[in-house]
Structures are given as structure tokens and as C-alpha cells.
Design brief:
Blueprint (H helix, E strand, L loop, with lengths): L26 E2 L17 H8 L8 E2 L11 E2 L11 E2 L2 E2 L7 H5 L2 E5 L3 E5 L11 E2 H12 L1 H24 L6 H10 L7 H13 L8 H9 L7 H13 L10 E2 L5 E7 L2 E7 L5 E7 L11 H15 L2 H13 L6 H26 L7 H16 L6 E2 L1
Antiparallel strand pairs: 1-8, 2-3, 4-5, 6-7, 6-13, 9-10, 10-11, 11-12
Helix pairs in contact: 5-7, 5-11, 6-11, 8-11, 9-11, 9-12, 10-11, 11-12
Length: 393
């Protein structure tokens, strides 16, 4: 297996051999009244579906349809089609002791690719508060899934990554993951700057990269690219597309510091903000023209927080899988380095615009560390939900 050069592939048994580096040192405490996780429609595992359907007190909460058409099988019903979980009452879970696996796992997720990796959903406002250690929780989560199930999923996902690796070699667009991540790390400071981002985006679209280039060569080529991309225009385009959805259940959710649930929807030439209630009802709270939202300058603290988040993304195996999905979907017409750095640069633009959008609503003119953090809260759940090769357990 050559997808990741120099990497061994140990089985993950109750956390042994799994990568928990993202959650090491992180703590978490659930914030009463937040209930962000109760806005995510959880799938039901087969044994959970049988138990829920067999219990008269639970069966009405089961739906045969998920808000995502890509998800097959039973899930928990949402109130009012796009509100909170069927079992949420005044922002408290009414079946807490019987809540499904995916509810118990939150804010953690387990990704199976060429190895097993535990990620933290940074949209959760409870991460970083004094409380339980997320590394220990991650090991317990893996133990609960079970060594046999983890091994089965890992074998299956590895086959997908091996096939992808074979396809990139055949198309002469292959790169090792270490070269991708090394190039991204070298360009991290560039991607906190509009000019640097424009260079990386232009390189992703029109660069010329040899197969199996070194990280240094990839980063040099990106930096030497004449910047043609308009980052501000791209930000407005991404932001407009983000909110241009008819179905309210597809709109991204932002839980503010006041713990109100907010969604934003493009109506005409304005983005209309709504406060969402448990039953799916909405109350208008703001109106903004996307063209009025500039990519706000970052303070030194803001740039540091922005780069730190991109570093987390760069270390996520599911993001490598996302870039692989994009390359496969595009028919392997680009070098994998260009697909990967393009995905990361677009991630940076999306985050920057969302943070600027929230800051604009609050009347701020610059993005400090706190404003960037709010952008991450608004963004990370959507990033973890992007299509990828491999599987979340």
C-alpha cells in the first residue's frame, strides 16, 4: 500500500493505533441550552432502529428519510421538517439515556480512511471549556464501536484509498499525503493573506505540477504563480451560493454566543437572517446584501487563529479524502497537489467570508481572534459534512 509513504497501518483497537492527535489536550463541557447537536439529524444504527421501532414511546420519532439524500436508512425525525430533534423539549433531550450512537459521540467523529482518526467538531461551543478530556472520550468511543467493526470498516476504506492511489498514478497526477500536507504547511501564512490566497487559487486552477513532487517544489510553484483569482469576489460568490437554498434544512446553522439558533437565506439580492425555534419556526432578525460584506482585515491574533484552524484541517484525513473526492469527480485532470491546495484555499476563503459576514452583522471592522473563532463555529460542522472518500463510523 503506497497511498501514504512511510506509514504503517496498525489496526485500531479501543484507540490503540488510531490517530487522536486532533483531540489530545482538548477538553469539553456541554453548555446547557445550546443543543447544536440536536439540530443534526442522526442516523440510526440497525439495532437502534429495531429498538426505536419496537418501542411505542419512540417509534414516532423514526423517519425513513434523512435531510441528506445521500444518507440511506432510518434516522431521527426532525420537528417541522427542519427544526430540532423530535425528542428535544425546551432544549433538553427527553430520551437522554437512550439517545443514539451519533448523539453520544458528539462532538467527536471517527473517520476511517487508510487509518482511523478521531476529529472534534469545532462548531461545538463547549470545546475548550473545563470538563472531560476528549482524547479519553475518543478512546472510549472507539471501544464502544468495537474492534471487529472498526477493523471491518478500516479494511473497506483502505481499499477505496488504494484504488484512488492507483488511479492517480495511472493518470500521472499522484502525490504523497506527506507532500500535500508539507506544501500546505509551508503556505499556511500565505493563506492568511489575500494575495497569497490568490496565488494558491490560481495555481490550483492552472498550475503545472510533476507527479510525486516534493512539498518544497509544490509550495515554490504555488508562490511563483501570478495571482489572477479575485479573493473578494470569490468570497461573495461562495457566501451567496451558501445561502441560496430553498430547503431550510440544508442551510448552515450558527449558534451564537447568546445560544440563539440562526440560519441565513438568500432572498432576492439580500441575505435574510432568521432565528430558528425547536419546531422549525423562524423569526426574521437581519437583512444584509452579500456585496456589502468585505473580506475584513485580520489582527495579528486573528491571523494566528486563522492559520491554527487551517492547520487542523490540513491534519484531517477526511479532508484529504475530500480533496480526493473532488479529484475523482473531476476525472483526474489536475495534479493531486493542485486539487488539495485548491480545496484548502477555498476553505480559507469560505471561513474568511463567514467570519467577515458575522463581524459585519455585529458592526466590527476587523477580525480578531474572537471573530475568527466565531467564523470557525459557523463553519466547521459544514466542513466535516463535505463529501469524502472513506467513511465516518
Amino acid at each position: 500500500m503506497s497511498f501514504v509513504e512511510g506509514t504503517s497501518y496498525p489496526m485500531a483497537v479501543e484507540g490503540e493505533g488510531a490517530d487522536l492527535s486532533e483531540v489530545e489536550g482538548l477538553t469539553y463541557a456541554c453548555i446547557d441550552g445550546c443543543a447544536l447537536c440536536c439540530l443534526c439529524q442522526p442516523e440510526l444504527l440497525p439495532d437502534e432502529e429495531r429498538a426505536f421501532r419496537g418501542d411505542p414511546a419512540l417509534r414516532d420519532g423514526v423517519s425513513d428519510q434523512h435531510i441528506s439524500p445521500d444518507v440511506q436508512g432510518a434516522a431521527i425525525r426532525l420537528q417541522g421538517a427542519h427544526g430540532a430533534c423530535h425528542f428535544l423539549r425546551q432544549r433538553r433531550c427527553s430520551i437522554y439515556q437512550r439517545r443514539p450512537h451519533y448523539c453520544r459521540a458528539f462532538p467527536l467523529s471517527v473517520f476511517s480512511g487508510w487509518r482511523v482518526q478521531v476529529n472534534a467538531n469545532l462548531s461545538c461551543r463547549g470545546i475548550g471549556l473545563p470538563g472531560e478530556g476528549l482524547a479519553a472520550s475518543g478512546r472510549a468511543l472507539l471501544g464502544g464501536i468495537g474492534a471487529d467493526e472498526v477493523a471491518k470498516e478500516l479494511n473497506s476504506s483502505r481499499e477505496v484509498f488504494v484504488e484512488f492511489s492507483r488511479n492517480t498514478r495511472d493518470a500521472k497526477v499522484a502525490q504523497s499525503v506527506s507532500s500535500l500536507r508539507g506544501a500546505a504547511a509551508a503556505l499556511m501564512e500565505d493563506m492568511t493573506d489575500e494575495l497569497g490566497l490568490a496565488r494558491v487559487l490560481t495555481y490550483a486552477e492552472s498550475g503545472r505540477t510533476r507527479q510525486n513532487s516534493s512539498a518544497q517544489e509544490i509550495a515554490r510553484r504555488a508562490r511563483d504563480t501570478h495571482p489572477e483569482a479575485d479573493v473578494g469576489e470569490l468570497g461573495v460568490s461562495i457566501g451567496t451560493e451558501l445561502f441560496d437554498l430553498e430547503d431550510l434544512s440544508y442551510l448552515p446553522i450558527y449558534v451564537g454566543e447568546d445560544l440563539r439558533w440562526r440560519i441565513f437565506r438568500l432572498q432576492g439580492d439580500e441575505v435574510v437572517g432568521y432565528v430558528l425555534d425547536e419546531g422549525g419556526g423562524t423569526q426574521e432578525s437581519s437583512r444584509t446584501s452579500p456585496s456589502e460584506v468585505a473580506m475584513l482585515p485580520m489582527t495579528p491574533g486573528g491571523r494566528k487563529a486563522f492559520a491554527a484552524y487551517l492547520d487542523v484541517v490540513n491534519r484531517r484525513d477526511c479532508f484529504v479524502g475530500h480533496a480526493a473526492h473532488l479529484l475523482d469527480d473531476d476525472g483526474y485532470s489536475f495534479n493531486f497537489a493542485q486539487a488539495y491546495l485548491g480545496a484548502l484555499a477555498n476553505t480559507a476563503v469560505d471561513l474568511w467570508w463567514r467570519a467577515s459576514f458575522l463581524a459585519h452583522l455585529g458592526g466590527a471592522a476587523r477580525l480578531d481572534e474572537g471573530r475568527v473563532r466565531e467564523g470557525v463555529v459557523f463553519f466547521d460542522m459544514d466542513l466535516l459534512d463535505q463529501p469524502t472518500i472513506g467513511a465516518f463510523l
